[in-house]
Structure formats: structure tokens, C-alpha cells
């Protein structure tokens, strides 16, 4: 290739690249409203964004991976935690930590009820933006230490001897084990399978024995009659029975999301319950 041919090739290649770039940019702009759910941007969502900036939340947290990395990314926090948890947490973060043991890092911002409501609406809108799978996994924070969800998975618990290993794909427990790490919201965002590891929700180690004791208790307010029924009830109607004194509910509402009946089929819920009931 001589100099003239090289020059022509460079000009043509640059032109084609520029056309492709402009075309992709224009196409992206036509998709922004759909990808960001622009139709769902209500005045409350906008005001919630203002609260986010007013209190400099981005100085510690990230959205879509943008911001500071001092605290967890909150892109999907509304799906992982749910409205009841977020509202209680924002009112008083100290209730979720033992400062002497965990070194509470989240300051109490003294937000008004309106600010909390709007901020929750904003985070809910953020969680529904099509972000192409980012963040790739939920990041959990416990005891002042950032850990990835893999540490709370069934595989890790099996190594610790807290869950009966199941491998056959046809076994409902095996399918339930997979659902535990893939359901939306993902269970591992709030629950560990290892004894004593409390996240946003209680550890599920020893779930079978604990469920049996709860059903037998005169204080039980649900309608389940066996262990798997209790677990199923906890997944579908988490506020049916609230554990007295536990910091996993507020104002008579469990922090557990109540959307699994919509996102999972009845068969999937049974498989998840079968897996959790296998933990002794």
C-alpha cells in the first residue's frame, strides 16, 4: 500500500467510524426515555433527587457506579431492601448497628418524613432504570466490612456445615438453592446462610428448627402448620408474623420485600421453601 492508498484508507476509515459513532449516539438518545423510565419521573422523584444532593449522599455512596466508594452502591437498594427497611433505616441508622461492635459509619441525617418519602421514591426510580446489569452483584456491608454476596451463598454455608449439600438438578432443593442466589430481589442481599452473620435480615442458618419452634409458640400470628408452610408464608406474606423485639420490622411491617409472589411462580416458591427447610 503506497502513501496515497494509506491516506485514502485512513480518511475512509475515519469517516465510517464517525458515521457509526454519530448513528449510535442518535440511537441512544431515542432510547433514553424508555431505558430510564422517564414517564415515571414524578415530582416526588425529582424532590427525592434534590434530597440526595442536599445531604451529599454521593460523598459516600454510588449510583450506577458513580460517586464515592466509602459506602455501598445504592443503584438497586430499593429492590434489595424494600420501602419499610429504607424508611426505618433513614430515620435512625444507629438502630441497625452496635456502634461499639460494628463501628456505625452511617450518620443520622435527621431527615423529615417528607424527605424520607421522596428519597425512597427517587431510589425506587433509580432501581428500575435499565442499567444493563450494573452493579453485577449486590454488595453487602456488615460490621463495617464490605463483603460480596458470594460469602453468603449456599456454597459457603455448605462448607461451614449449616446446609445439606444438594446437587441433582431435578431435586427441588437444588433448584431452590439456585433461586436463593438469583431471585429478584436476590435473597443473599439481606440473608446469610452462616450462623451469627446478620445482614439486613437474620441469618437463615438453622431455619428448619427455628421455624418449628415459631409455629409451636403461642405468640405465632401466622397460619402455617409446618416448616415449609411457614417458610412459604414468610416469603409471600412476610408481615404475617413479626418476631417480637427483632429489628427486622417497623410499624407492623416486615422489612422483607412482599413482591416475591409476583416475581416467582408458585412452584419456584415451593422449591425455595424446600431448600431453606433443608437447613438444620
From TrEMBL:
GO terms for molecular function: electron transfer activity; heme binding; metal ion binding. This is Cytochrome c. Residues 43-127, 171-280 form the Cytochrome c domain. SUPFAM superfamilies: Cytochrome c. Keywords: Electron transport, Heme, Iron, Metal-binding, Transport. PANTHER family: CYTOCHROME C-553-LIKE. InterPro entries: Cyt_c-like_dom (IPR009056), Cyt_c-like_dom_sf (IPR036909), Cytochrome_c550/c551-like (IPR051811). The keyword Nucleotide-binding does not apply. The keyword Transferase does not apply.
Amino acid at each position: 500500500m503506497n502513501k496515497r492508498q494509506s491516506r485514502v484508507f485512513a480518511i475512509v476509515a475515519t469517516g465510517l467510524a464517525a458515521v457509526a459513532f454519530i448513528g449510535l449516539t442518535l440511537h441512544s438518545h431515542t432510547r433514553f426515555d424508555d431505558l430510564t423510565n422517564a414517564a415515571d419521573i414524578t415530582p416526588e422523584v425529582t424532590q427525592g433527587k434534590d434530597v440526595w444532593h442536599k445531604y451529599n449522599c454521593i460523598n459516600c455512596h454510588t449510583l450506577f457506579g458513580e460517586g464515592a466508594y466509602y459506602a455501598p452502591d445504592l443503584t438497586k437498594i430499593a429492590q434489595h431492601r424494600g420501602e419499610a427497611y429504607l424508611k426505618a433505616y433513614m430515620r435512625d441508622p444507629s438502630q441497625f448497628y452496635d456502634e461499639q461492635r460494628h463501628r456505625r459509619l452511617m450518620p443520622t441525617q435527621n431527615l423529615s418524613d417528607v424527605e424520607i418519602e421522596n428519597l425512597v421514591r427517587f431510589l425506587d426510580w433509580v432501581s428500575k432504570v435499565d442499567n444493563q446489569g450494573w452493579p453485577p452483584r449486590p454488595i453487602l456491608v456488615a460490621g463495617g466490612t464490605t463483603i460480596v454476596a458470594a460469602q453468603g451463598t449456599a456454597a459457603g454455608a455448605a462448607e461451614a456445615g449449616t446446609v445439606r449439600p444438594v446437587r441433582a438438578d431435578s431435586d427441588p432443593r437444588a433448584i431452590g438453592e439456585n433461586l436463593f442466589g438469583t431471585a429478584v430481589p436476590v435473597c443473599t442481599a439481606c440473608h446469610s446462610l452462616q450462623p451469627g452473620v446478620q445482614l439486613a435480615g437474620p441469618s437463615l442458618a438453622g431455619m428448619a428448627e427455628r421455624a418449628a419452634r415459631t409455629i409451636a409458640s403461642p405468640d405465632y400470628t401466622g397460619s402455617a402448620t409446618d416448616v415449609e408452610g411457614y417458610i412459604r408464608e414468610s416469603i409471600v406474606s412476610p408481615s404475617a408474623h413479626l418476631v417480637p423485639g427483632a429489628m427486622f420490622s417497623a410499624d407492623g411491617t416486615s422489612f422483607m420485600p412482599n413482591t416475591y409472589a409476583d416475581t416467582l411462580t408458585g412452584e419456584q416458591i415451593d422449591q425455595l421453601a424446600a431448600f431453606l427447610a433443608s437447613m438444620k
